[in-house]
């Protein structure tokens, strides 16, 4: 709390004085021109801290129309109470920040807590008010102050583009800016894409394994069927030969092409010709039938 003369010089002070007379002179003139206390919005002091203040004229109650006899300044350092509130991010984040911004002439003022030169500032570290000019339209803060509430992106002084959501604070000239680096945002998407790709590859591998297993089962089934058919054919052939070779009748197997496939041993007893002779001469049987002679 400070008691000031009309030129901004301190008459009395409780606590550490934080304002220069040069800064106070235009504020004293503005406060003197109105009947209610003048709000001195959050501003940066020599120590870099963010302060808010109220300046009111002290008048003689007996002569309220006369010029004030002094000015009373009540100033509050907002950092101990306000900075912890805007330093909390709703989830663990390496780059997420909440920033209060407003336009002050040709500069953009930031109220936040920056670690070691982080953020859209002039490179200073710590917390409090930080500034940059409005002639940097690529900054999300400048875009927000020009266009109002919305989501903005663009590189900051580090060259890293954050994604920032801006919303005005009702009843004030300040806007709240919640920002996070795009690299952190896309990292989650890349992780999700990697998980999805892994699941797709796993599904494809599983499908391929199922198809291969089904194919192998079909191949195995076909092979077993061929073996069973071959076994049945051999058993039938064995039974046929056993029957034919022990029969007293001439049993033969004639192909559609006119060739002997089989002739039973009884052919030699009936015709006088051995089975091999019938196998070698396809016309032998027709010759015997046409001219049986004494042999038949």
Features:
alpha+beta; 38% helix; 296 residues; rod-shaped; six-stranded antiparallel β-sheet; five-stranded antiparallel β-sheet
Please provide a written account of the structure:
The chain has helices spanning 21-32, 79-86, 140-147, 182-245, 266-271, 275-280, 284-290; strands at 2-4, 10-13, 38-44, 50-58, 70-77, 97-104, 107-114, 126-133, 150-153, 162-168, 175-181, 252-254, 260-263. A hairpin with a 5-residue loop joins strand 12 and strand 13. The protein contains seven helices and 13 strands. It is of the alpha+beta class. The protein is rod-shaped.
Quick check: average pLDDT?
81
Give the C-alpha Rg.
53 Å
**Total number of beta strands:** 13
The best one-word shape is rod-shaped
Class by SSE composition = alpha+beta
Q: Largest beta sheet: what is the strand line-up?
A: 8-7-6-11-10-9
Order of helices and strands: EEHEEEHEEEHEEEHEEHHH
Low-confidence stretches: 116-126
Helix content: 25-40%
- Taken as a percent bin, the fraction of beta residues is 25-35%
Largest sheet: 6 strands, antiparallel
The number of helices is 7
Q: Please report the distance between the alpha carbons of the first and last residues.
A: 149 Å
TL;DR?
With 296 residues, this protein is α+β, with helices and mostly antiparallel strands. 38% of the residues lie in helices and 27% in strands. It has 7 helices and 13 strands.
């Amino acid at each position: 709390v400070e008691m000031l003369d009309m030129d901004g010089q301190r008459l009395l002070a409780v606590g550490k004085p934080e304002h220069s007379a040069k800064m106070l002179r235009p504020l004293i003139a503005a406060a003197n021109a109105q009947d209610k206390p003048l709000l001195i919005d959050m501003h940066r002091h020599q120590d870099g801290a963010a302060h808010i203040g109220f300046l009111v004229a002290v008048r003689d109650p007996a002569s309220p129309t006369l010029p004030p006899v002094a000015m009373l300044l009540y100033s509050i350092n907002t950092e101990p109470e306000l900075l912890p509130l805007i330093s909390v991010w709703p989830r663990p984040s390496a780059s997420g920040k909440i920033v209060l911004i407003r336009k002050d002439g040709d500069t953009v003022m930031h109220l936040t807590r920056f670690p070691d030169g982080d953020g859209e500032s002039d490179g200073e570290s710590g917390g409090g008010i930080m500034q940059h000019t409005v002639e940097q339209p690529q900054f999300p803060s400048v875009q927000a102050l020009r266009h109002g509430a919305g989501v903005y992106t663009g590189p900051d002084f580090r060259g890293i583009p954050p994604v920032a959501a801006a919303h005005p604070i009702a009843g004030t000239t300040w806007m709240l800016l919640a920002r996070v680096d795009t690299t952190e945002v896309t990292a989650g998407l890349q992780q999700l894409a990697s998980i999805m790709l892994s699941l797709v590859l796993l599904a494809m591998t599983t499908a391929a394994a199922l198809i291969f297993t089904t194919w192998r089962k079909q191949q195995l089934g076909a092979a077993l069927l061929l073996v069973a058919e071959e076994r049945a054919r051999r058993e039938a052939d064995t039974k046929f030969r056993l029957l034919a070779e022990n029969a007293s009748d001439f049993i033969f197997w004639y192909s559609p092409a006119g060739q002997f496939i089989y002739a039973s041993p009884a052919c030699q007893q009936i015709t006088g010709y051995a089975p091999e002779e019938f196998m070698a001469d396809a016309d032998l049987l027709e010759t015997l039938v046409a001219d049986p002679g004494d042999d038949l």
